[in-house]
């Protein structure tokens, strides 16, 4: 885990670079696709999504968490293909960006999670 500062521009800039975003989400898809069948089952998504997107938080199983996953599966289907996974991640990051706004926010994130990839992407763009 690492502490970092982000704004909505960090996430939106990452999403806007479609080549980088697609490449990175494809990499995460391959990691989560444990049976290597080219689709993410509900079980695979539940096991790995928190590590891909998460900040330091406790995600406990329960009705609220089940409702979130059920909504994901209703919208994107029971088995996610890479494009649907990419769309899901884009929606999550866009929602986070809206919530964060333009004020800098300090977050504790996974070293190799998507948020950290967005931070690294932003730092490379500034050079």
Please report the total strand number as a whole number. 2
- The strand line-up of the biggest sheet is 1-2
Judging by the overall fold, what is the CATH architecture?
Orthogonal Bundle
Mean pLDDT: 86
The geometry reads as globular
- Compressed to H and E, one letter per element, the order equals EHHHHHEH
Please report which band the strand proportion falls in: under 5%, 5-15%, 15-25%, 25-35%, 35-45% or over 45%: 5-15%
Distance between the first and last residues' Cα: 25 Å
Number of domains: 1
* Poorly predicted runs of 5 or more residues: none
As a percent range, the share of helical residues equals 55-70%
Report the CATH C-level class. Mainly Alpha
What structural class do the secondary elements suggest? Answer: mainly alpha
The main β sheet shows up as:
2 strands, antiparallel
CATH superfamily descriptor:
EF-hand
Number of helical regions: 6
Gyration radius from CA atoms, angstroms: 14 Å
The CATH topology:
Recoverin, domain 1
Description of the structure:
By secondary structure, the protein is mainly alpha-helical. The protein is 64% helix and 8% strand. Strands 1-2 form a two-stranded antiparallel sheet. α1 runs antiparallel to α5, α1 packs across α6 and α2 (18-32) crosses α5 (82-100).
